[in-house]
Every structure is written in structure tokens, then in C-alpha cells.
Amino acid sequence: MEKVSFYSLVKNFKAVFIDSYGVLKNHEGLIDGVQDSIDYIRSQNIPFRVLTNDASRSQEQQIQVFKNLGLKGLREEEIITSGMLARQFLELKITSGKVAYLGTENSAEYILQSGLEHVPISDVDLNSMKDIDDISAFLFLDDEGFDWNLHINKTVNFLRRKNLPVIVANSDKYYPVSKSDVAIAIGGISRLVEYIVDQKFIRFGKPDSQMFMYAFDELNKTGTFAKEDILMVGDTLSTDILGGNKFGLKTLLVLSGNTRSDTVDLKINSSGIIPDYIADSILS
Amino acid sequence: MEKVSFYSLVKNFKAVFIDSYGVLKNHEGLIDGVQDSIDYIRSQNIPFRVLTNDASRSQEQQIQVFKNLGLKGLREEEIITSGMLARQFLELKITSGKVAYLGTENSAEYILQSGLEHVPISDVDLNSMKDIDDISAFLFLDDEGFDWNLHINKTVNFLRRKNLPVIVANSDKYYPVSKSDVAIAIGGISRLVEYIVDQKFIRFGKPDSQMFMYAFDELNKTGTFAKEDILMVGDTLSTDILGGNKFGLKTLLVLSGNTRSDTVDLKINSSGIIPDYIADSILS
Amino acid sequence: MEKVSFYSLVKNFKAVFIDSYGVLKNHEGLIDGVQDSIDYIRSQNIPFRVLTNDASRSQEQQIQVFKNLGLKGLREEEIITSGMLARQFLELKITSGKVAYLGTENSAEYILQSGLEHVPISDVDLNSMKDIDDISAFLFLDDEGFDWNLHINKTVNFLRRKNLPVIVANSDKYYPVSKSDVAIAIGGISRLVEYIVDQKFIRFGKPDSQMFMYAFDELNKTGTFAKEDILMVGDTLSTDILGGNKFGLKTLLVLSGNTRSDTVDLKINSSGIIPDYIADSILS
Amino acid sequence: MEKVSFYSLVKNFKAVFIDSYGVLKNHEGLIDGVQDSIDYIRSQNIPFRVLTNDASRSQEQQIQVFKNLGLKGLREEEIITSGMLARQFLELKITSGKVAYLGTENSAEYILQSGLEHVPISDVDLNSMKDIDDISAFLFLDDEGFDWNLHINKTVNFLRRKNLPVIVANSDKYYPVSKSDVAIAIGGISRLVEYIVDQKFIRFGKPDSQMFMYAFDELNKTGTFAKEDILMVGDTLSTDILGGNKFGLKTLLVLSGNTRSDTVDLKINSSGIIPDYIADSILS
């Protein structure tokens, strides 16, 4: 497939959805030149949303992280996280009780925002009927903030005791922590627990359509946008491109992250996930 | 869980989504009394949509089938099929070329409606470069209309030759054909092909959110409905209830189809899929 | 990995296990020069066994096929098929009743040899309690000899009616039928049925250890051979090499079949299945 | 299925294979009366082997544990652990280099016995080419002896750097730690790592045939036993009974562990794994 220029391509669309990791930033920080790209999109009056499978931080905290990395001018409504879908689920489906979770205090912000009480699994007494009774949902939020051995096992035993809605707020298997290394994400941990307790949890985040639908609905509160008006930009075939394609958006694969120039053809062929366009990055 | 009356429950909602098989009809035909239930909903001015994982017939043909079974007054816009999502995908993502498919001529109606040419896999010459080049998408539509041995194998070899979008228009594994017997659905056949060619296809239909989203969007063209205003009614935990829950709807499991009174508790416990309400049927 | 010469390597072993398809023959027939290789092994007094995931023909019929292809001098005891493991299972575990099957009359030879009666699923009357009661095991034997639509569905409904041992006599997903084309094998079909009825069947054939154990035991009836004395030769990483490695044999991957010279390194790296040696073929 | 008496049944066999947990012991310790059962088998001159999916302790240490629980007279050769299969693999396939592992120092005994050097993953420097080069196999041994977060992630990154044989010495998902609670076993942890690095590891332990074959071969060093001479006794359908059936042994399911009297029929029906006999326990 011939490579295109992001700057030329984007002008044909009325809005853009952009993946965060591998497009805007990488393990070293902000990708050089990304501020220019964002400024360019704004100058063309093309609204955008950053779609990220991240439930470890609230929208506000995400903005702060981008600011610290050097990206200026992002607004809260321009960030869509998979944690927001988990929050919406709680708001719509859980009317009372507490929500137990695996994650940091920071990530529990999404529970707080839903108006429900949150309790880390570490604070639940599995031998107290009252403690068990009080909890009405369980949330996988972040891979940090708990002792893996102690509290993953405790989660397993909690879920063996009580049948309740279990939500995974980030479906990613792992995330990069350096040029060569990764860390298992809460989505990966939740797969282990699913396998042990033999149940299927509710997962939010790309490639699931609900993430795109949420961003689409949010965008349409600010104007009128059809699916064909929107370009989805991402670096990962199995999340950004698969999800974008299925939702009916035109998709652009960039080679500044997970997918490398020398193996892109092989990966497209073996996966059967085909982007509409390919570009080196969003930098030109 | 205590059982509720559908008639009492539905009055608390502004709209209803209803599964077809196991709620409105079963292997013997229309469930006795369903006409009264539909009339009751209408008398309460509660709009409804029938959501069915069926791509073997168009909306219009579905209406005709219900009419033949004895259910009167259904309107075309009240039927949402997973085939319509496949059609939408073709409209949004496939701009040229032909669409090859497994299914009946009837089911190919969805391709026709998208404005694209359709060709059954039986008519494709795998040794003709032109034939292969001309095809820009593949669609699994129905389990009938082809020779399983000959044309499932031909599909495998076609997909080994060409990398293109593959869409499954009905994700069900099987469907009932009598009190005790089932038949493998096109969703099941597509799993076999996925397994053989080692790729992931794009699947439409419950429990996937996109089906609910489509019905939700269609409904909102006729008024203003929030997710909390809608009740999803179905007989199957893994499709109707799981999908309804995830989308954020209140869910009612009825025991007139796949899920039986004597095993419902066991099934809920072992699956972890919990409906908000349970009723014997929609008949009272 | 450096390539070795099969002729030089084999001299270091007291016995050889050889895969059939991709090593001795391919879609065009016998691989040119294979007669010399077999003669060479014999001249070195190295006994061998041909291990094949094939339950469509008995040992005797397999010999005949090789003879027809032009390979002379193979003896019955030199052929080990996965069908023989199915036969052994029947002999050891099924003491009475009939065995129903999917496959050709030819493949049913394995049931006949076990001393049990065989009945094709096409001849079973699902509405006859007697017919159902009479059957004490079900066997997946061959992808031919039945109507896929009719009899795969009939198998599903039979297995929904009766809980009994189900055996898959060939675990391969597919087999090559020409340079570019494959056909779904009975192992693939059995996966579809497993998926529909949600059970795990008993599977025989490489890479499962039991196939290697059977060949090992047969070989040791003719002398004394330790695992370290035996070289396993095959063209497929996921069956021949994985199974040979796990059983504790030294393994030689040949590039005359499924695995090609230009992608062998990639395949080894992505699968994590590592042969001890690599050679172009067994021809030199 | 009618229940039988173990004492009456066992007299029809020349040897017995016995699962450990759920048959001989449970979370409270030795099951009351088991000493009598063992004494009874011995008095009938029926040799037995205890088959356990446990790689956390050597044969010798296992004997000591049974002694501490109060079971007297077990001999080292009467214990077969899945760790012994991992050791055999190392002996046959790994000729040089060190073996890295996840587990306790105790469990590494199996590596020591193979004559190879062992190194816990915690001591490997991922940035040292020499460290990486020195390691020729990786072993999952025990769920204890390491920091889950730190060292499971380190294992993932090690396996991303180096392609080498990976062995799981205990394929169990979890093990009971009290009447109601379980702990994730190293077999479960290895599944998480497999899922993250997208490779298939080599797994030892029931239900895999190789475990039964090993016990069978060991037994046959002391006499002549055919498969039909041996009874497999276990409390778990998916390991003891499935594995015993497939290997061709007669199988006895006991209800003193994982499988309970009130759900045994349901479990047999839904799994399709059918024991030849059922008994309450081995106590009478």
C-alpha cells in the first residue's frame, strides 16, 4: 500500500479520532513535532478526540500528563478514555452498594465520579457477610496499587463467593515501558482471573465499538458528524484499525509506534486487518 | 431472583427492545398470546424494536414471515437485523468491486441494498486473477444456499489467496429447528473458517454493542430516548442480556425460550451474566 | 540455524521417526529421490517408523498407496497412523455396543479391527431410543463419505441427546490438495462440533505424546531403543517438531513441505518451537 | 451411575494409579482412614503410584510431607510428580547452559537433578547479553518464591528477548487452600505469560498422556502390567479421569474432593468426561 501524508489526508475529513500511545507519545515522551500536528489540525478547524485504553487516570489527570510532556492546549473534552465507559456503565446499571476494584486510588476516580462508593479489594473482609453483601460490582482499573499475589488471589476468591457484574476498564494486554520492554496491563491480569473463575467479564476499550460510539456521541454534541466524516488514526492494527473499520470509519495506520515499516505488510496479511491508509506518522 | 410481570414492568420504560426467537416465536411458530403483548405495548404508546441476529432475510421479508405466522401490524422500521449492520459496513467501507458471499440469494439482498454487486462463492473462479481481483469483501450471510463441503472449502482457499475485509452478518453459533434439535448457523460456520485460516473476522449481531447502538440510533430518529429509558427483553443470557447490560440498558430475561425455569439460577451463577429482571414470558 | 545433511545426521541415531506428507510425498506424489533415502536408511540398518495423522486408511491401505506412488518395500509395521490410536482406545475402553462415525466406509476399518460394530451417523435414527441406546462411542474418522450439512448437523444433535466418549482420530486442521489449495480435515470439522456442543473431545495424532509413545512402544518390540536414540523428522513445527520435542526426541525440520526456506526463521521465532536441526529435505 | 466400593473394585486390578489431592489428602490434611486404604491395597499385593501435578517439591520432599501428615510407609518410587517429567525433558533435550525459572529454591531441585545449573529469573540481568546467552531453557515451577508483579513481568520481557524452550512443570490452573478458597497455581500464571507473549509452552502433568506414560513405564520396571490391568483413581474429571480414559485405563471417580455428590451427574453430562466407576472415596 502506498504511503500518504497525514497533513494532506486529514483535510478530506471533518473530524479525527487519534490514538495516544504510538501516535502522540512513546516511551520516551512526546513524539517530536506532535505539537505542530495538533496545531495544524486546529488551524484547519478539524475537531479531534484522543481515544485511549487507559483507566489509570481521569480525563483531567490525562491532560496534566500531556501538559507535563510538553503538549499544550489539550482540552478535557478532547480526551476519551476507556475508564469513562466503565464510569458510564456504573451510572446506568449500578444503583446502590459499593464498587470493589483492583487499581490505584487514582484510577478509582472513575468510581467516585459515578457517585458510588469505592473499596479496594485489599480492604474487603472475605469472611464478613456484610462486606460481601455491600459490594455490587467489581472493576479492573489499573495494574498498580496492589500486591499481585495477594490481591489477584483475593479477587479470585471474592468472585467465587459473589456473582456480580465485573467490568474491565482497559482491555489492553500490555503496554510499553521502554524501547524493548512491556508491562502486563490490567486487561491482561483480568484475562488470568477470567480463566481461573471461568466467566466472561464486560470489557471496555478499543477495539470494542462502544468506545468509538462514545467518542462519536460526544463529538456530535458539538456539531453534526457522520461516520464517513471521521478519520481514525492509530498505530495498532488489532485495536485502533480493527475497531475503526468495524465502526465504519476510514482508518489511517501510522508507523510511529507498535507497527514497523519493515513488517507492516506481513502483519496486515497475517491478521486480515486492512487500514484504508498508511502514513509514517502524523508529523507531515 | 423474584419473577416480575412484563406488563407491569414495561410501563416504567419509554421504549422496549425485543429479541425475536424465544420471546415472540419458537420452533412451533408464533408464541400464543404474543399478539396481545404487542398490542398492549402499542396501547401504552411504548415504541419497540425487534432485534434479531438474522441475515437470511431482509426487513421486508422478516415482516412477511411474522405476518405468515399470524402476527399483524409489524412495521418495517420496527425490525433491526444483524444483516443491516453488515449492509451499513459495506456502504461505509467498501466503495467499489463485488462482494462474494456464502448464503442464499435471499440473504444477498443486504449486499444489493448497499449498492454493490454480489457474487456467490460458487460462481467465483479461483484460477481467474480477474475474478479474484474484482472482489473487495466477503460476507457470511446464511447457512443455506450452498454445498457445505464444496463451498466452505472454496471459501477457505479464496481467503488464502486474497486479503480483504471478511464480515459475519450473524454471529450466532446455532439456531433451534425443533423442540430438541438445532442447526449450525452461519456464525458457527464462520468460526470454522476463522480457525482454518487463522484470522479474526468482523462480526455483527448481539451481544456486540454495535447492534444495540444501531437500534438506539434508529429509535432516536423518532424521538428522544436515553439508555435508561429502554428495556431489553430476551431469552438468552449470552446475547440479549450480556449485550443489553454492556450497552447500559435495563435487561429482562424471559423463560419462554433458551433459558428454562429449572436451570436459570445455575446458568446465571455459572455465567456471571445477571439480568435486572426475570419473567416467565411477555404474555402477562 | 545452520542446515545439516540428513544422510550425515541420521547415522548418529539408532532409529528414525518420519512424517509422511511433506517429507516422503507431496501433492504431486512421491518426492523425487525418496526411494534412495529410504534405501539409504535401510542400508545403515536404522529402523524407521512413518508417523501419520491419517485415519482415512488402514496400515495395509497406506502401504498400497505408497506402492502406487512408486515407493517400494514399505512394511505394514513401519506405518503408524493416528487411526491406530483410536482403535486402541476402542479396544481398551469400549467393551460393548456400536460405534457411530463420520467418515468413509474405508476409514471405519479401524472400528472393525477393534471388534466393535460400526454404524455411519447417516444410518442412525435419532428418534429411535434403541438406536441411540445401542451406540457407545462416536468417532471422527475422515472428512469424506458423508453430506457435510446433513450429517455434521446430525452429529451435533446426536451428541446433544447422548453423553458418550467422542474420539477424533486425526487432529489435523486441514491438508494440502494442490500447490496452493487445502481441504478442511476431519480434525477441523471436529473443532466445529466441539464448539457447537461445548465439550472437549479426545484427540489422537501428532503433536500429542500418545502418538509418539505408541510408535516408541512398537519400535521397542523389535529391540531396545531409548528416546535419545531416535530422530524425529518432519516438515511441520506445530505437529512433528513440537510433539517430538515434548516427547524427548531430537528433532529435524525439513523444508520440503509446509515450512519454507524463506520464512523458517520467522516461524520458529514467532512460535517458539525450536527444532534441534534443519535440513532442506531427506534427499541428501 | 451406581456407586461402587473401592475395596471390592480394586481387587479386579493388578495395579492402581492414585491422585493425591482430593483422594489421599485435602485442605485439612490427610483424609481420615486413608492409611487403612493404603494398607489394604498393600495387603492385596497391588502396587500403586501416586500421580500428582506438583513441581514444588521433589519426590523425597513429598514423602516427607505425607509423613508429617501421618501417612506412613510411602516409598519414593511410589510418587510420580509432573516435576519429574520436566526434569526428564531437561535431561533429554537441554545439553548445556543454565535453566532460568519461576518458583521456590525447593522446586528448583528438579533442575539440579537434571545436572543443569539453575538461576531464578530474579537473578538474571536482562541488559547483560552474557546472562541472556547463558540460558538455554525456562521453567515454570511454583507460584511462590518470587514477586509476582516484578518477576512475571520480567519473565515476559526475558521471553521477548530470547527464543528458547519454555516448560510448565505443573499445568493446574489453581489449587485449594481452604474449604472455600483457592490459589492460582503456576499453571495458571504460565497461561497469563503465554497469552502475553503469544506462544504455546510445553506443559507437563495430568491430563496429558505423558504423565500416565511415565508412571506406566516406571511401574513396568517392577513387573509386567498392561493398560487394562491398571485402575486410575481421582477426584477431578478434567485431569484424572480425562487423562486416564485417553491413556486407556479404567477410571474411578471419587467424591471426596473436587467433585461433589450432588453435582456429579451434571458435571459428567456437561463435560462429556465419563468415568468407568464412581465411589464415595477410597475408604471402603
Care to give the gist of this entry?
Four copies of one chain form a homotetramer. With about 280 residues, chain A is α/β, with parallel strands linked by helices.
Kindly describe this structure.
4 copies of one chain form a homotetramer. With about 280 residues, the first copy, chain A, is of the alpha/beta class. Chain A has 2 domains: about 120 residues, Rossmann fold, CATH 3.40.50.1000; about 120 residues, Rossmann fold. Chain A is about 35% helix and about 20% strand. Chain A contains 11 helices and 15 strands. In chain A, the strands form 4 sheets. A 6-stranded parallel sheet of chain A has the order 5-4-1-13-14-15, sandwiched between helices. A 5-stranded parallel sheet of chain A has the order 7-6-8-9-12. The first copy, chain A, has a two-stranded antiparallel sheet with strand order 2-3. In chain A, α7 crosses α8. The radius of gyration of chain A is 19 Å and the shape is globular. Chains in contact: A-B, A-D, B-C, C-D. Chains A and B meet through α4, α9, α10 and α11 of A and α4, α9, α10 and α11 of B. Chains A, B, C, D: It comes from Fodinibius salicampi. Chains A, B, C, D: One of its GO terms (molecular function) is hydrolase activity. Chains A, B, C, D: It holds the Pfam family Hydrolase_6. Chains A, B, C, D: This is HAD-IIA family hydrolase. Chains A, B, C, D: Keywords: Hydrolase.
